[in-house]
Specification:
The structure holds 2 protein chains of 2 kinds. Chain A is mainly alpha-helical. Chain A has helices at about 1-20, 20-50, 60-80, 85-95, 95-100, 105-115, 120-135, 145-175, 180-190, 200-210, 215, 220-225, 240-260. Chain A has one domain (about 1-260). Chain A contains 13 helices and no strands. The interface between A and B is medium-sized, with 34 and 33 residues.
Chain lengths: ~270, ~260
């Protein structure tokens, strides 16, 4: 309980400091919103001109996009501290060494070290597109689906968070962030915006069995939308999301603890 | 003088080898991703808006090859120099401020074209059956169109950076601006696939002249009079934006307050 109180105190300080410059904040909010919204607009313009993609309508694709964007955006807001883009400079500058010395839980310090409200811009557009598509794609919302939806979002958040944690842990050895992780995070998020059967089977397999991104978004979406699976997987694939999502997060934290134990400071 | 600046900037880029390889892998991945999407969009269609599948796939390769050439994700040299106060030194140099930055950017761009652009096209040629410029005229027009695209892109980035002379929020404005450019220039999807009403406007904006125009010259989508008009529109935007940069710079210098240290 004490940890939770500390979290809210530290977070409150972060949030207040961000609201000091209201003009800058609104501009940043707009920037993050446009960054992803323009991508969707380009996608929507082209898909509507071609009348669908691989047997999926625009709004069915928007459902995938909205689900992936909302989960990634929410995760990015809460887990921003583990974003390797922000974490690797903390190793280089020695700030991480200071964190190790403080009598506070390490994850608590890292999570509250970065909490950018401007990410609400991305979440808002993701949610708006998701809400529209959930209506316009003609999903038959049953009670089971409504109950499963928050589980899927939470699991996807856990999965994306695991990517951040692994990306940051690797920095213990490399110091510099590895750009390759952007392929998994940003690339993964973009890939998840389309039905998986349009990709080469090996790419789909990689993002199912090695990095289970498709299990978090695509296969659950098949269940919500009632679409047939063209990748030749069994039907229960739609329900593995919580296991793979939280499983990945647990594994990533095991790796993180291993990394912290073997951490050698850069000496700065 | 400007030549030396460009050359130094070119050589600086050569030093970052691992970063360039990592960047190349990233470009290839995102390019391939969009190629899959376009192939799926085409489905059984032969041609859409003057593009066949081959041209569309090539489009994804060339835009990715141009990303770092045009520094499309942002270029904040002047914003940074205003923040650090370095801008005062730069302005008092006996060289023109605009061309001082332009020369360095062209050196950087050329290095990026050679280190990331060409290898990416080569990798694309291995993975896909890509299109090449159809006639010698298109081969000749391509470097001209690329150079004009770079000049327009630079002048635009220069203008966006100059907002730092007026506001401390220049970085935020810059992010909004570079997101708009990615969208409006045809980086994400070919402008030819946008709805007709949107295309009519977008094609005449300077953003289309940065990316969409050179790619369509390469692909031979524009031919004959259309090719000449494309190049003329690019030249027009280059002149307009360079002149505008100079006017805004002159106004900005009068307004600039450099904080000590």
């Amino acid at each position: 309980m004490n940890t939770l109180r500390l979290y809210s105190v530290l977070l409150g300080a972060r949030l207040r400091s961000q609201m000091q410059y209201r003009g800058s904040f609104l501009l940043d909010l707009l920037g993050t919103m446009l960054g992803t919204l323009t991508y969707f607009l380009a996608l929507a313009a082209v898909i509507s001109r071609f009348g669908g993609i691989g047997g999926w309508t625009l709004w069915e694709v928007a459902f995938l996009y909205g689900l992936a964007e909302t989960s990634f955006g929410l995760m990015d807001l809460v887990w921003g501290g583990y974003d390797y883009d922000f974490f690797s400079p903390r190793i280089r500058s020695g700030e991480f060494d200071q964190m190790l010395l403080r009598p506070l839980p390490l994850p608590l310090q890292i999570l509250t070290s970065e909490f950018a409200l401007r990410r609400l811009g991305r979440i808002a557009q993701g949610l708006a597109i998701f809400a529209l598509s959930a209506h316009l794609s003609g999903v038959d919302w049953t009670a089971a689906k409504l109950l499963y939806l928050p589980v899927v979002i939470a699991s996807s958040m856990a999965f994306f968070a695991a990517l951040y944690v692994v990306g940051s842990t690797v920095c213990f050895w490399t110091i510099e962030r590895l750009e390759v992780f952007n392929l998994l995070t940003y690339g993964g998020a973009e890939m998840l915006s389309y039905p998986m059967h349009i990709y080469h089977p090996w790419l789909t397999r990689f993002f199912t069995f090695v990095v289970p991104a498709a299990i978090q978004v695509y296969y659950p979406a098949l269940y919500f939308l009632g679409k047939p699976d063209l990748t030749g997987m069994p039907g229960f694939m739609s329900f593995l999301a919580p296991f793979t999502g939280f499983g990945c997060l647990a594994l990533s934290f095991a790796f993180w603890r291993f990394g912290v134990r073997h951490y050698q400071s850069t000496g700065t | 003088m400007y030549w030396a600046l460009a050359r130094l900037s070119f050589q600086r880029q050569l030093a970052y080898r691992t970063a360039n390889v990592a960047g190349l892998v990233t470009n290839l991945f995102f390019g391939a991703l969009r190629a899959y999407v376009l192939i799926a969009l085409f489905g059984a269609r032969e041609a859409v808006a003057g593009y066949d599948v081959r041209a569309a796939v090539t489009y994804t390769g060339i835009t990715q090859a141009m990303l770092s050439f045009l520094a499309a994700f942002g270029w904040w040299e002047i914003i940074r120099s205003v923040r650090t106060g370095q801008v005062a030194t730069d302005l008092s140099r006996p060289v023109d401020f605009f061309w001082y930055h332009a020369a360095q950017d062209f050196g950087r761009a050329l290095a990026q074209l050679l280190l990331r652009g060409l290898p990416l096209i080569a990798l694309y040629a291995l993975a896909y059956r890509i299109a090449v410029p159809p006639t010698p005229l298109h081969w000749l027009a391509l470097p001209l169109s690329l150079a004009l695209g770079l000049l327009i892109s630079f002048a635009w980035r220069f203008l966006v950076n100059l907002t730092a002379f007026w506001t401390v929020d220049a970085m935020g404005i810059g992010r909004v601006a570079s997101n708009l450019v990615l969208f409006l220039s045809g980086f994400i999807m070919p402008l030819a696939f946008f709805p007709d009403w949107a295309q009519a406007g977008l094609r005449f904006l300077p953003f289309a002249s940065m990316v969409n125009a050179p790619v369509e010259v390469y692909l031979g989508v524009v031919q004959g009079p259309a090719l000449v008009l494309t190049l003329l529109l690019q030249a027009l935007w280059a002149v307009v934006l360079v002149l505008l940069s100079r006017v805004v710079l002159a106004a900005g210098v009068r307004r600039l307050v450099v904080q000590g240290g």
